[in-house]
Every structure is written in C-alpha cells, then in structure tokens.
Amino acid sequence: MTHELTSLDLFSGIGGFALASEWAGIRTMGFAEINPYAANVLNKNFPGVPNLGDVTKLCRRLYDCEPIDPETGEANCPRCGVDFGECDCIGTDQFTDTLGFPDVIVGGVPCQPASLVGKRRGAADERWLWPDTLRIIGELHPRFAILENPEAILSLDGGERFRGILGTLASLGYDVQWHVIPASALGAGHRRKRVWILASDADSAGPPGHSGYEQDGDQSRRKHTDA
Predict the structure, then answer these.
(1) Residue 84's pLDDT band (cuts 50, 70, 90)
(2) Spatial CB neighbours of 50, under 8 Å, sequence gap ≥ 6
(3) Which is it for strands 194-201 and 174-181: parallel, antiparallel or unpaired?
C-alpha cells in the first residue's frame, strides 16, 4: 500500500517548510514554534496541525532530568522546575502515541549564534539549539532530516561546530550531504547564502524518485517499529 509521508516541522516560523512540504505531497503532522505572531499565522494557514511549542520541551524522557530520587524514582524537570510527571514537557512516547513517527524532520535552526551579523557565540548562546534538534532526531529517528542555517556556520569556531553536527548525525545512523545555496539561485533578488543539510537514514530507502525508494507502508516504518 502507499504510505503518506509525514513531517515534523521544528522552529516553524510562519510555515515556509510546511508550504514546501505541501507542494511535495508531504503532510505536516506538527509544528514547534513559540513566537506568538508566527504561531497565529500557523494556526490560520494550517488549521488542525498542532503547535507543540518549545523545541527544548519536545520528546523528553525521565533520564533527561536530574537528580533522580533512587527511592521514589522521581525527578525534577530542569526546564519546568517541577516533577517530570507534572511538567509541560512532551515525552517521546506521548508524542508517538498521539502523532506517530514522522518520516521527515525539518527545521531552520535559530541562526543568531552563527550569523556574521552578531557576536557568533555559538554554543555559548542560549539560542544554540542544535543539541535539542539532534536529540529529537535521535528520539524519533525519521527517514530524513532537512535542516537549514546561514553559511557562516561552516566557519564557526574554526569549523568545529559544523563538524560536530555532522558527526552526531553520522553517529545516529545517517548519511549526510550539504550544499550552500543562495536565494538568488531560486530567482530571488539577493544572495542570502544558506547551508542546507540533508540527512538520510543509512538503512532506509532513498528519497522519493530514487531507484531504491519503496512506498510500501510496512517497509517505510521498519526502523520505527524496531526502535
């Protein structure tokens, strides 16, 4: 049977990735956006698609919390300041039980920590949310991840940060390729170069249109059911 491809959209903004996904025949299963204006735009233009809010609170597990009481097994959530069972975080099992597993995770990870227009503090910047992005990819293990950032991330900390991102994706079982594409290459009147990262599950079929692509629903979920 034909499997409908689904996408989890992180740092969603006003829905650029979701619109492109729609054009490609991919259904966006959920957003993660905290900006009130952008959230209102998403709600208007994509009714029925849930906005899960803060990426740092998405797909969490008990072992993310410290300390764990050895007698009660309770742990305080460092993000919400309350017991993990009472916090606002969305657990991985809660996510998958409600929405299922996404085939694709997309996201324009906040650019300020790497951008040339700024202090380029990298991982020292609270907006450096690559660790959470990679954590969610590791939790949900989609077949593909498509991520975007400014070209300046390639030289951040002498290239160390970008190499770390690629290394983490490889350790999660992904083949990775990346390209620098200016907006002008797509007809825009400015250059605005961006790095685009495509991570593909090394054990999965290729992208739609590739000779190895399988549309059978059971085949497409094999990695998910084994996880």
Answers:
(1) confident
(2) 30, 31, 99
(3) antiparallel
Orientation angle between helical segments 92-99 and 130-140, nearest 10 degrees: 60
pLDDT for 208 equals: 52
Query: Is the pLDDT assigned to residue 183 strictly greater than 90?
Result: no
pTM of structure:
0.86
Phi and psi of 64, rounded to 5°?
-75, -15
35: how many CB neighbours lie within 10 A of its CB? 13
Q: What residue type is assigned to position 179 of the chain?
A: H
Q: Name the more confident of 8 and 213.
A: 8
Q: What is the dihedral of CA 87, 224, 30, 95, to 10 degrees?
A: -20
Going 217 to 199 to 100 to 16, the CA torsion angle's sign is: negative
